[in-house]
Amino acid sequence: MNNSTTNYNFSNIISHFKTDEGTYNVKPFGSGHINDTFIARHTNNPASIYLLQKINHFVFKDIDGLMGNMISVINHLKSKIAEHPGGNPNKEVLTLIEGRDGKYYYAEGQQQLDEAFRKISDELRTQYLLAFYPSRKLSDSPFRRIQVELSKKDPEGRAYQVRHRAGYYTAPAR
Length: 174
Hints:
Elements: H1 10-15, E1 24-28, E2 36-42, E3 49-54, H2 63-83, H3 89-92, H4 110-125, E4 143-145, E5 167-169
Antiparallel strand pairs: 1-2, 2-3, 4-5
């Protein structure tokens, strides 16, 4: 994932949660392959430290369900730890910070959707269909691989992105 701080407005994101008010120093945290994770440290209160995680909505389609599962597991773990003498659920288990809207996550919303639909629209406008007929109608192998390449570059000199299927199945030779 993109674990860079430049793509996010952290002061806006943090303001949507019930956290200590003030300024936070935010840095990438860890090197996850699915979600972007950041550590946010309050500049005036060293005890005020939060982990922020941008959930990959391509992997996790049902964010409400995901968060519901997390809350259930966390509450179960906290209750089990509290049963043991000396157990401290607040220090031994993750604590989710509730958002000001009552949810445990913040979705930037419409702007992200607009950008996603713009990208989809751009891709749909630039599709081309190529067809060909092989010289041999029958093949010795059931699968014929194809490779599609473009020799022309875009106006900035970059190669165009080509998506195509890997090949096709043929009728068996008789």
